[in-house]
Each structure stands twice: as C-alpha cells, then as structure tokens.
C-alpha cells in the first residue's frame, strides 16, 4: 500500500465495483504528485485494506471510506456515475441528491424500481455522459448498482465528514480532498486506445500492455516497481489497469488545472461532470 510522505500531494484512482464480492474487484492506484510528474507507488485490491481481507461489499466499502478519510488524498478519481440525468434528479442540485440519496432510495429495490420506470423507452444519459462518450447511462442495467452503492456508500459518507468536496460542482478548497468522477473508457476513446483489453487471451494481454506503455512513454509518470506493471498486465479483469487509468485522469485534471475550471452549463450542477 501507499507510504504517504506528503498528504497534500497524494492522488488515488479507484476502479469501483458493486459486486457482492466487491473487495476483490475494487482496485486502488496510489501515487505522489511532484510538480508535473506522478510517481505511482501501489496498485492493489480493496480487500487488502483489512486483515482478514474485506471481500464482501458490506465490509469493503466501509473499509475503503475509512482508508480515504485516514489518508486524506488531495484528489480521488472514482469510476462510477456521481448523479442522475437532470430531469430525474428530485433535488435542486447534485450535492443535495447525494446528501439525501438514501431518503429517496432506501434500498436497492427502490432504485431498481426507479430504473425500470425511467428506462422503458431507452436509458437516459446525462449531458456529461454524451460529451465524454461514456459507454453507459447511470441507469444502465450493467451500471445502476455501481451508481447506487457508489453514491450511497462512498460519496455520501465522504461528503458528510466535511473533509471532502466535489469540484468543480463545489469550489476546489485546498484543505479538502477532491472527489472526481472519472471514466477510463472515455479516456481510451480520446487516446484512440479503445480496444478489448479485459480477458484472458493473448490479444487481451497485448492490448493491456499497449495501453500501459502508451501512458508511461509520455515521460511524466513512473512506476515505483516493475511489479506494478506486471499486476496491471496479469489482471485479466482489467481492474488493476482501470485503477491506473483513473489515477492518470486525476493526475491530468490537476496538472492541467481542469478541477478549477468554471462550469459552462448549469446542468452540471444537477448532473455532475466526468473527467477523462
């Protein structure tokens, strides 16, 4: 795990999962920002946050929340939808929706019912989903569980501590940790690297290698150990690689000043915005 030296420079990328055994599928990539360069120190599954390992979702998510509170990174890139389309948000803002999410959706069954009601004629997307060319709507059958558990069990608890904020929806206050919605798939599309990389075949492995090498060859990010490269290539599910991509997006958002960019459309205040 991360050996934290300067908490103000700590960045974390998280590939999220809402599976029952989420502790095995949630991966974290941790690194230290130094000027305009990033040093990746560790890549590991959330199950390793506790002893014994937190495998089940109901154990892994609280452990992850506590880990983030304890380490207080400057920014965290999280790979799940932070909100709903504007027309479906029952609140006046994204922040209010996150804060009151459990009141509107007390359990997953209630959210499933909501999803079915509003997806009868297609899956509505947010403005940011369309702009980022995100593969799925927050209410997509493959994604809605991530939306639900990500907002309820991660975003809401973190924001309620008062130690984190959601820029650029909220001001990027230096004393707080910044929570960013990121999308590795959108990044790969932007970089013309969107190709099948999740799987056990030699072709999938070759694609994972090509993706990692593409970003390493840019010369502004380094891995502390060759084992980090190997872990991203060896993980056939692509979770380790996705956490690295989430970290890269977070790094670039800070490096390029995107976190403090003024919002160009009030819709983002109700729906959220994807960094990629």
Describe this structure in words.
- The chain is α/β, with parallel strands linked by helices and 276 residues long.
- The chain has 12 helices and 8 strands.
- 45% of the residues are buried.
Q: What is the 3D form? A: globular
Amino-to-carboxy terminus distance = 25 Å
Order of helices and strands: EHEEHEHHHHHEEHHEHHHE
- Radius of gyration, rounded? 18 Å
β-strand number: 8
CATH architecture: 2-Layer Sandwich
CATH topology: Nucleotidyltransferase, domain 5
The overall pLDDT, averaged over residues, is 95
Q: For the record, what CATH class applies?
A: Alpha Beta
Number of continuous helical runs: 12
Beta-strand proportion: 5-15%
| Biggest β-sheet strands, sense, barrel | 8 strands, mixed
Helix residue percentage: 40-55%
Count of structural domains:
1
Give a short synopsis of this structure.
This protein has helices at 22-25, 57-71, 94-99, 101-104, 108-118, 127-132, 144-160, 184-190, 202-216, 226-234, 239-255, 267-271; strands at residues 10-15, 27-34, 37-45, 75-78, 164-165, 177-182, 221-223, 274-275. It has 276 residues and is α/β, with parallel strands linked by helices. The protein has one domain (7-275): Nucleotidyltransferase, domain 5, CATH 3.30.420.
Structure characteristics:
276 residues; alpha/beta; Nucleotidyltransferase, domain 5; eight-stranded mixed beta sheet; 12 helices; 14% strand
């Amino acid at each position: 795990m991360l050996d934290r030296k300067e908490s103000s420079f700590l960045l974390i990328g998280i590939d999220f999962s809402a599976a029952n055994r989420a502790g095995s599928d949630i991966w974290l990539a941790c690194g230290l920002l130094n000027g305009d360069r990033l040093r990746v120190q560790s890549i590991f599954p959330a199950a390793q946050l506790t002893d014994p390992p937190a495998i089940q979702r109901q154990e892994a998510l609280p452990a992850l929340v506590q880990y983030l509170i304890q380490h207080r990174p400057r920014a965290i890139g999280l790979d799940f939808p932070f909100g709903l389309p504007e027309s479906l948000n029952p609140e006046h803002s994204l922040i209010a929706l996150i804060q009151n999410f459990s009141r509107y959706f007390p359990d997953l069954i209630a959210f499933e019912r909501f999803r079915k009601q509003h997806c009868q004629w297609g899956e509505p997307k947010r403005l940011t989903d369309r702009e980022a060319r995100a593969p799925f709507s927050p209410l997509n059958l493959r994604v809605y569980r991530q939306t639900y558990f990500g907002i309820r069990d991660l975003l809401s608890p973190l924001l309620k501590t008062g130690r984190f904020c959601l820029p650029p929806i909220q001001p990027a206050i230096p004393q707080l940790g910044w929570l960013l919605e990121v999308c590795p798939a959108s990044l790969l599309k932007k970089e013309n690297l969107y190709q099948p990389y999740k799987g056990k075949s030699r072709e999938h492995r070759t694609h994972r290698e090509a993706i990692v090498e593409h970003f390493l060859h840019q010369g502004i990010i380094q891995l502390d150990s060759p084992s980090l490269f190997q872990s991203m290539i060896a993980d056939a599910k692509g979770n380790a690689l996705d956490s690295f991509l989430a970290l890269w997006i977070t790094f670039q958002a800070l490096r390029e000043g995107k976190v403090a960019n003024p919002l160009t459309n009030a819709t983002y205040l109700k729906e959220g915005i994807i960094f990629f």
